[in-house]
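pasting for the record
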Amino acid sequence: MGRRFIQTLILLVVLGFPGLPIMAETGNGVATDQAKWIISSGTSPSLPSGSLLSLALALERGAETVWLDLVLSKDNQIVLLTDTRIDQLTDVKEIYPDRSRPDGSYYSFDFTLEELRGLSHLPAAPSGSVGATSLFRSHLPVTALDDFLGYLDIVFTELAARPTLICTLKHGWLHQQEDKNLGAIVLQALEDYQSTKANASVVIASYDPEELQQLAQSRGAGQAEDIGFMQLIGSNNGEEVQRLEFGTFQPYSYDLLFTRFGLKSVSSYADSIGLDPQAVLDDSAALNRPQFLDDAHTLGLQIVCCRVDSIPPGFAPQGSGPEALFEHLLFTIGFDGLVTGQDRLARNWLENRMASPSYEQNNIIERLIDRVEESGSKPPYPMESDATR
């Protein structure tokens, strides 16, 4: 544990925090306060997220944390796909041309696991290339979570560190319409894995606060240090979460989660928050809720910027290229981590930056400890219900 863990416990006693913040040493494999958290999206310009090949390549290149989007099949098996609608992700239209729904779409929960395994991903070809899709398509079958965990068990001894898996529940509300409980099935599968193999740390992430809170409260006894929880926050456009209101499904609004009251609620069941850029960054790449990160850090929440690769080129106000964007997100704004397909580049850049004589570690806990020691009073504690500005 060491000196830092003891300092953290002292700080918690002084501040009266309800639990151990995720930036201290934890059992779920999440990054400590001594490093930024670089999460691989498991994708590349020619390899789609969720394919076994792309995930294997990410691990081979040194990724210590990988992002997994999860949906259910017709027979309630967990599958690695970024959306429940699969006609834009796979060749399902060609294999099963007559099995679309009335809306013209194909959904994962209309096909068994074996049927899904028979489909191939449709990777996007790099700009200006020819034939990339046809080259990789037959080698990119849809992968079940069990397939990936089995692969991980095989290569575990060759990895530099025990990896962390961010297991993201995709469109739980759509699963509920099919009488499927995606969250409960994933939680049970991960608890079973942790009780047997445990060759990876796991974090369950969801855009649905109700779904995530229920899972955090229902996890099995003895699993508290094995499974972490990340609350994801996106735009209020209904892309990720919808609620049934007055007989119709309406987009879910995240506005409450940006208040101090909402943050306090999130801290009661989650260890970290993942923010989509369009939800928190304005056109000048500045944080449109500048107090949000400070309030979240005070509550012990780690804040990750998701979908970094979706940020338009040149979005960072200074410099050009991905390194300038990493610098802006991690050190100008102060995110604790980011999710990108360029994770190897980000790790190398971060390592070089830390090795630089001018590097100053962004240590939230040390700053809070110093503040307490110097002032002898409690730092601001976000318990009020007014909106975070």
